[in-house]
């Protein structure tokens, strides 16, 4: 890891903490005002922070006493002075109030980030999962044979 990567990796840590805490404001603080989101659920895209706020508020609000733990595998970054791209395999684990894993969903995550007022902000997020050609169903669980799957986590 080089010095340019450290602040970008801190954005991932802040993302994980905000999701676990169900903290809408901390979560949204990671994104730029003009963020463009290609998410997995419901909408084709979200344009701007306020559109994203609605989805995040709804997501966290549906969790009740449950929490979500975020794990990242094979996180890779390309970082320059004021722009960065990162991608990873991400697992969202639904946890009971007691911390017991209830379910898990896997997908692929790509972020484009840029420096805004001295802080790294996510300006584009793309979440995806492969689709089975035969059934047209989204595959949310990787197989053991998934190629190039490493175990580097943050």
Folded structure, characterized:
The chain has helices at residues 5-21, 24-28, 49-61, and strands at residues 31-38, 46-47, 67-79, 83-95, 101-116, 119-128. With 154 residues, the protein is α+β, with helices and mostly antiparallel strands. Strands 2-1-6-5-4-3 form a six-stranded mixed β-sheet, covered by helices on one side. It is globular. The two termini are 12 Å apart.
What's the helix and strand layout?
Blueprint: H1 5-21, H2 24-28, E1 31-38, E2 46-47, H3 49-61, E3 67-79, E4 83-95, E5 101-116, E6 119-128
Parallel strand pairs: 1-6
Antiparallel strand pairs: 1-2, 3-4, 4-5, 5-6
In brief:
The protein is of the alpha+beta class.
Features:
40% strand; alpha+beta; disordered C terminus; 154 residues
Major β-sheet strand ordering: 2-1-6-5-4-3
- Helices, by number, come to 3
The biggest sheet, with number of strands, parallel, antiparallel or mixed sense and barrel status, is:
6 strands, mixed
Would you count the extended β strands for me? 6
Helix content: 10-25%
Shape: globular
Structural category is: alpha+beta
**SSE ordering:** HHEEHEEEE
Report the end-to-end length measured between terminal Cα atoms: 12 Å
Poorly predicted runs of 5 or more residues: 147-154
The percentage of residues in β strands lies in 35-45%
Mean pLDDT: 89
- Rounded to an integer in angstroms, the radius of gyration calculated over CA atoms is 16 Å
